Each structure stands twice: as structure tokens, then as C-alpha cells.
Amino acid sequence: MLTIHADSRGRALVVDGALIAAAGPLEELAAGRPRARVRQWPGILTPGLINLHGTELLEEAYHPDPREAEELGTAPLTGEALAALAMDDARWGAGARRGVQRMLAHGTVAAACEELRNRAVRDAVHRSGLRVVGRIGRPAGVPSLDPYASGLPVEFASPREPGSAARFAVFDVADEADLPAAGASSCVATVVEGRLVYRRR
Question: What is the pTM of this model?
Fold first, then answer.
């Protein structure tokens, strides 16, 4: 089934399976595909973000379960706090799944990582559809689920063109120029491999 994703400016993408089938004005795309499902979002469509601290956030941090919030808080645990936990494969996998979901909620469609050595983390990332892009060495800046809070220039995924992978995000801002001030927490939807993997309620 075709799905048309459109932003508040009337810019739209047609998604067919895992690929972008067409891009253009909503009226034009919808007129040629009367049976397509149309999802209209507030804000702007973008290619989605690349989080440059994938290794630090997924393999060197534990993302607590909400049921652990009273004991562990809600922020990713690293360093001594992580070392104090009894981490096994099940806990690493569950933490990585939550970390990926939190990345997706910030419009992230790809994470830059060194080789992921923890199998439980690697499996969780692979199943999510989050794209892993290689990197050499450790980037500067502060690891953050919001790439705009890392102190580094923000990188976007490849442009969305017909025939390319359907990976993009929608941020509730009026224009791209407003996104740095609003931050990635303004994300309202994230699509990975054609699937709506995050939607703000």
C-alpha cells in the first residue's frame, strides 16, 4: 500500500514499501494516487539525522527501563554508574532497544559507530532498522540523544529522492532554520525502511 507523508508546507513523499517512489507537492502526488493513505504532519520533512555518538550511546551506556526510573533515573548510565550494574546479554539488549527507540524519537535514522562488539547490542540495532554508518576514532562533543546538544555540527542522512531508501523524519518547526533552536526533541515522526517507527502522541 502506498503512503504519502506530507508536511505543513505541502511538501510530500510517496513511500512504496521500503523506498521513496516520488517526491513533490502533496496536491500533485495525491491526485495521481487516489488510493494512497495520506499522513499529514505538522512541521517539516527532513532526511533524518545521523547521531555521531552511536557507539557511546548504544554500546557504552545503559538506557534504564521506565520501571527502573526511581532507582536509576531516566538518563543513559555510563562510567561508574554503568560499571555498578550487573550487565548481562539480556540487559544489554533491552537497554540498546530502548536507546534505539529514544534515538528514533529524536529523528535519528542512522548512527555512526565503530564496530559494535556486543552481540546483544548489535542484534538490537540490526532489528530496529536503524542504519549504522562507520566511523574512525571517537568524535569530539558530548554524546547526546539529541544531536543538536552534542556540540558538533549536525549531519543529515542522504537526500530523499525517488528510488532511495525511505528514511526520514518530521520536526515540528516552521523552517529548517528553526531546527537548531528547537532541537531534535521537536521530532513528531520518524520513518525507517518505509515503516513509521516513531510517532509523537
Answer: 0.93
> pLDDT tens digits, residue range 10-22?
999 999 999 999 9
How many other β-carbons are positioned within 10 Å of the β-carbon of residue 24? Answer: 14
At 173, give phi and psi (nearest 5°).
Answer: -135, 160
Which stretches within 105-174 are classed as H helix? 119-128
**Domains annotated on the chain, with CATH:** 3-47+159-199 (2.30.40.10), 49-149 (no CATH)
Grid cell 561508574 in the structure block, residue: 80
Q: For residue 105, which of 181, 16, 193, 198 has the smallest C-alpha distance?
A: 198
Nearest to 177 by CA among 50, 51, 52, 43: 43
Distances (CA, A) of 129 to 97, 114, 192: 11, 17, 6
Q: What are 102-125's pLDDT values in tens digits?
A: 999 999 999 999 889 999 999 999
- DSSP at 54: H
